[in-house]
Amino acid sequence: DNLDVRFVGVEVASDEGDDQEDEDEDEDEEEPETASAEPGSAELSSGIYGADEVNDAVFEELVLPAGLPEEVQRVWSRFLSSAESQEAAGEAIYGALFDAAPSLQGLFKTPRAVMAMRFTNGLNHIISSLHDPKELKLIVETLGFQHLDLEVTVPRVAVFRDAIVELVSVEMGDLFSVQVLRGFRTFLNYVGGSYIYIRTKFAERVKVLASSWALATNKAVDVPEGRSEEAAGAEAPDGERASGDAVVQMEPDKKNDATKAKSRGKSWGIKLGSARSSKNSTRGAEGSRGHDGGDATDFRNTCIPKTFDDMFLFNAAVMGMNGRTWMNEILASFDAIVTNVANSYRLSEECDVLSLRIAKYKGSVNLSEFKSVMLASLRSLCKDWDSAHEVAWSWLWSNVERLIKSSLGKPKAQEAALARFLKGLDESAHVVIRRELYAKFFAQAPKGQDFFKQSTTRLHFIADKLVAMTLDMYKNPKKMVEEISAIGLRHVGYGIPTELFGPFVTACVQVVRSLTDDDAAEEAFRWSLGLISRICVRVVAEGSTIVMRAINANSAKLLKRAVSCAPRGKRALWMLNVQVGTKSISPFIWAIETGGFDAAKAIIVDLLTIRSDRDCYYYGMDILFERHPDVIKQLCVNAPSLLPTLLDGLVWRSRTTEHGQRRVNYFVKHLIVDADGQFSKAIEWTTDNQDAKLVCHPVVVLVTDMVWNKVAFRSFLIGKAWFLFTLLVFTLSQCVLNNTERDDEGALSQNVLIISVLCRVFIYLFSGGQQVKLHVLETFKAIRAKDFIWYNCVPMPTYLSLWQHAASLALIVVLILMLGFEPLLNCLGSHPGRIISEHCERGDRLLFPYSLMSSAAVLLYFMLLTDLSVFSTKVSAYVLVCARVLSELALSLSGLFFFIVAFACAISALEQGDPNFDGIGQSMLQLCKMCLGMFSGESFVELETFPALMFFVVIFMIVTVVFILNLLIAQLTCAYQATYLDMVGYARLNRGKIITDTMPSVSAERWESFVENLRLDDPMEFGEGDLGLPGGVQVLEPACVNITTVDVIRRFGGSTSPAAEWPQEDVRGRDDEDKFERLEKTIGKAMKRMSKASRAHGSGAGSSMGGSTGSSGGSGSVCASGGGSD
User: Fold this and answer.
1) How far apart are alpha carbons 301 and 309 in whole angstroms?
2) With contact defined as beta carbons under 8 Å apart, do 1021 and 1034 qualify?
């Protein structure tokens, strides 16, 4: 006999030839299940399901009377809009259920906030599908499979139904008519009865599949009855995650255990295709040890397979099916198929994608061969295999095979039809698609206009990309699934409601239908776009966690509430990783990129808050930097205001002191060492940020000082030793030897000249040559990278924007000029009796220009020597302050020069006989002497004989000496005060830059020794005998420096299980937002009392003139009682 079973909306029949199944089935399984009603059988459904009774004997399509679904949907929409948010509506439903049946509270192990959101989303999906019986049945069926582990009974369904109906009726009042009441009761009875029916029929079978698959794949067995729904259902099935939860994990190697058999496949004889991914090379190497590079048909390997993948490949080789490469595609998706056995949407999606991937293989595909190998492998791995296992797995494969066969063979024809259609589209057709797509979509779903905020050109680009994706889905389904998952995760961040995907797909299909008469092309486009939509909806549903919703609202309060229900062992992961399939998104980074700085700050504070129970400490520093090694860079670029919050969280200060000292733990491991053990780029990122206040943060100061004093200082000094040596040689040649004793003719001795020649040759070749090499290399790098800046339409390499490089280039130019004017070179051989001489006719003419170049070179050398000020922060700060006030000095000197020129010209035009002011040049010289106090007193006396000249000089002295020079003093004072606040920060910025430039020259041995001596992996003490967390260094600071009166560590008693939530903290009064909220509620209550009192007074006054006094008195008593109650 055939065994008809009902599975996720598809009627299937077992294989007729499998006699063992028929013989071993239980009596319950032998009875054929009731056939599903045909769509549209309103009379049958209306007779089966009603508003009074819960029918758990059948599971058919629910067809409500015409107009009733729309009424129910309208009332439900009004109910949701009456609440502050959907979460608030869910909280109300949650509270109503608990109040109605306190005994049922034990059924809810998921946190209240998560469960409330699930209630809202689940009811939304059900009510929105009331007009489509087929879709409604599929949704209810999926939800029913998710409730297999709960004991749903008719009395409990009645309690839930009455609680929800009563809540909605109270809130909606007159809108909740008798017809709507019957509609609500009918569909709630339908949902509850369906849960009971599905649990009765399929619960045991699904449990058998789950337990045997866990054993076959070496996974932890998840027993539904005893599982603890840890915070937001991180272990819940995909269907439950569709209500607002997502898998959060950090091990990408564990994403898909069904794709780990490539290395083993070579030993078992199946030739794996490129679609197979290998993530278990260690296991594969173990299986083929001793047969490196062995042939695929070598069966001398005696290692027994321990997992389903390995056993499947082994049995396929033994059964002579090593040429069926299409089996690799099914094997890659088999884990997702089995684990989503209770999720009809996901199972259908997996089978559709699988049919696309199998269509790429040539030759015949016999799916029953996979079943034979599958059952043989499972029998070998499951030691307790019996008839129940045989029935369950045959049942699973029969349904999967039916789903695959329904699409198998179609993709090739559909791809050809769609490619032909898209190739025939001209530009005018693309314009029609871009324009009409959004017009039709907005007409069908006006709410969608609120989510499309991009420009028209961007929307046109999205439309073109979408059309191309429908064809790419046929060409490369595996790659497209990954890309669509990534797109879906971005839609999670945008907060896109899943109900908008349906109208969008409908609009796209309508536009395509208007452009072609080819039914095959239209069907191909519709099927591909529908699959893309289903993947996106699933990803958005799975990724829409309560944390992401809080981030979309940019609310720190909502975020705290969201993570408060997380298990303590996964609390950090909730804020750092949302995993959907093989793709993930970071809520923290998304908050930063979208400008949700309030939520991002709350995440940082929560992650870097130390919490502890009796067993261990919980601190999110390691997981934050492991998930985002470049978090410092991300904050520097996108949210610099959050950097101090992050750095503050890396410091712990003890509340108690010992001998006037306080323990301070700096958790700086990830700011010093990166994941590869090399020097972290954190200092480089903070230095490039150019924030003088940030680099003065204690954490940054500690890190830079440690690295500078123990590692970088010596390497920097060694690098500067060569420069110091060349400076000494240059000074000896140009400043010392040049002033030694000379003979009667004024010439230096031959020995001195020889030493001078050697020194100058050294300077020209080694010092100048090294600088030339450096600038040539930097210039070529700039040219290759096109890294230029423009000065007055002149391109300059960007590296010359640093004054050190510009001064070095100027030094090269001066040295080249010195070489051209070199007297020793020009006088070579001019004296027969002397080998070397600097005095000759040509040399004497060039001696003075040479001396000028020499003086300039000396100044440039000493200017470059100021880099050594980095040895001391105070000296470096002083040098930087001097450099920053030079601009004020330049302005004053410019003004002084202007007045000197002006008065010199005026005096030259004056008829006077003083020889000191004869002409403009002479007048300028004398006026300069007056400004500098070099004008003699006798000269001032002589000016008395020229009254007009004396008048001009007095005016000049008042303008320059009294006004300009005193103004300069005021400018320098203000500039110094403004710069003084940040001068230490600028000095530390300079030191940080030098550290990052010096660290590449530090040897690996020295760096490893430094890191080892820090002992960053050793726990630090929080107190005497209290061994704390690793990852930092501990220092002692004076107790009066940073007074700490509250213990920074949040310590909790009670359960120490990592799966338990942290107890709620008493934070009343700490949050200003809570204070304002309480104030608003108080004012609202007062306004309501005043309004009631006013209405009472008005009604009394309107009754009669004689009762006016009594009404007034009544009103006064109302106000008085209200004030008393307040």
Assistant:
1) 16
2) yes
Residue 68, token pair as written in the block? 């009733």
Q: Give CA–CA dist 819/734, Å, rounded.
A: 13
Rounded to whole angstroms, the Cα distance separating 564 from 1126 reads 32
Q: How distant is the alpha carbon of residue 402 from its chain centre? A: 41
Amino acid identity of residue 770, one-letter, is: Q
What number is the average pLDDT over the span 52-63? Answer: 83
CA-closest candidate to residue 742, choices 752, 733, 756: 752
Residues 6+ apart with CB under 8 A from 449: 442
Beta-strand runs (E) in 52-130: none
Cβ neighbours, 10 Å, residue 99:
11
Measured CA to CA, the distance from residue 88 to residue 733 in angstroms comes to 85
CA 934 centroid distance within chain? 67
Q: Looking up tokens 């390997």, which residue turns up?
A: 301
Give residue-wise pLDDT tens across range 678-717. Answer: 999 999 999 998 888 899 999 999 999 999 999 988 888 8
Distance CA 303, CA 298 (A): 13
The encoded tokens of residue 543 equal: 């990724």
Calpha distance 1115→1109 (Å, rounded):
10
Query: Which DSSP category does 220 fall into?
Result: P
Question: What are the two backbone dihedrals, phi and then psi, of residue 617, each rounded to the nearest 5 degrees?
Answer: -100, 150
pLDDT of residue 707: 93
Distance CA 795, CA 579 (A): 48
Q: How far apart are CA 517 and CA 515, in angstroms?
A: 7
DSSP 3-state of 304 = coil
Helix axes 178-216, 387-407, angle to 10 degrees: 110
Residues ≥6 apart with Cβ < 8 Å to 55: 48, 49, 189, 190, 193
Map residue 655 onto helix, strand or coil.
Answer: strand
Q: Looking at residue 106, what is its pLDDT?
A: 61
Cα–Cα distance measured from residue 538 to residue 233, given in angstroms and rounded to the nearest whole number:
16
Q: Report the relative pairing of strands 611-612 and 1050-1051 from DSSP bridges.
A: parallel
- Phi, psi (deg, nearest 5) at residue 834: -125, 135
Which among 462, 430, 431, 441 is positioned nearest to 507, based on CA atoms? 441
**Per-residue CA distances from 764 to 223, 496, 767, 852 (Å):** 82, 69, 6, 17
**Does the pLDDT of residue 153 top 90, yes or no?**
no
What's the whole-number average pLDDT of the chain? 78
- What is the rounded radius of gyration, in angstroms, for the C-alpha atoms of the chain? 42
How far apart CA 738 and CA 736 sit, in angstroms, is 5
SS3 948: helix
pTM for the predicted model, two decimal places = 0.66
Residues paired with residue 673 on neighbouring β-strands, in sequence order: 679
651-658 vs 661-666, strand pairing mode: antiparallel
Q: What pLDDT sits at residue 1104?
A: 41
- In total, the chain counts a number of residues equal to 1126
Distance CA 170, CA 180 (A): 13
**Exposed, middle or buried, 925 (CB in 10 Å: 0-12/13-18/19+)?**
middle
Band of pLDDT at residue 744, cut at 50, 70 and 90: low
CB 8 within 8 Å of CB 345 = no
Rounded distance, CA 274 to CA 271, Å? Answer: 10
3-class state of residue 701 by DSSP: helix
Greater confidence (1068 vs 409) lies with 409
User: Do 716 and 1013 contact (CB within 8 A), yes or no?
Assistant: no
Strands 794-797 and 1021-1023, bridge-based pairing = unpaired
Distances, alpha carbon 813 to alpha carbons 293, 806, 854, in Å? 64, 11, 12
Both structure tokens of 20: 């063992």
Tokens 């490369």 sit at which residue?
Answer: 476
Whether 1034 and 1027 have beta carbons less than 8 Å apart is answered as no
Dist. CA 958–CA 783, nearest whole Å: 54
- Look at the alpha carbons of 61, 66, 70, 76 in this order and tell me if their dihedral is positive or negative: negative
